[in-house]
């Protein structure tokens, strides 16, 4: 099985001396996602995405949900690796086959998509920006209200829970917190959108969406693709340690989502729907 960390020998400069030492690298490998309709026999490639191995089932479920292929838990009938023993084990470890309901399979077949999604691409299968949050989609409604002190704790708690980042320094993370500040799920990946898909996918597989009383904290910047994924999962508050993009702010405003950026060192900016953040 492909692992999330590889080790390599590097030449490192440390002050006035040069040394050889071992370093840990975050693994980036392709994951080919194939879809199969329950009413037909063959599976075909939906997309190949670059990811850090681990929680692949959650990644597939979260990505297909964000793309609009899956609308409910009943749409996903089965997730599995290729069964053919003649296929190299390393190849099998980088392929997931999703068996879908006929309706979900039809939605998947209609989508236009990139052949390969890089680790910086979050909703590459969408055919247009208008499809990210469709016109007429209702804004999120949530009674969640959070104090500043709640927010101030999130970056540190996210970093403390990143086991692979602590070894490599090369992964993004997405963490979901409930209204009481408890960490419900944390996933790491070389792509921050993949980490978000893994978090959302973990709840999708348990039929536990929407997440209307939760806060999503992500490392890196808050791009529009993260806003779209949070909106799809019903998450009313999205926080990031870095800057949002202009489109992220536009989508958050339209979708009724509270978007917080530059959350670090006891400061933050609220870019949309600030009423969910208490003044004191």
Q: Which CATH class of the largest domain applies here?
A: Alpha Beta
Would you count the extended β strands for me?
13
Count of runs of 4 or more consecutive helical residues: 8
Annotated CATH architecture of the largest domain: 3-Layer(aba) Sandwich
CATH topology of the largest domain: Cytidine Deaminase, domain 2
User: Roughly how many Å is the radius of gyration?
Assistant: 19 Å
Number of domains: 2
Order of helices and strands: EEEEHEHEHEHHEEHEHEHEE
Helix content: 25-40%
Share of β-strand residues: 25-35%
Q: So, the CATH homologous superfamily of the largest domain?
A: Cytidine Deaminase, domain 2
Shape: flat
Question: Which ranges are low-confidence, i.e. pLDDT below 50, for 5 or more consecutive residues?
Answer: 124-129
Q: State the major sheet.
A: 6 strands, mixed
Strand order of the largest sheet: 9-8-10-11-12-13
Taking the alpha carbons of the first and last residues, their distance comes to 49 Å
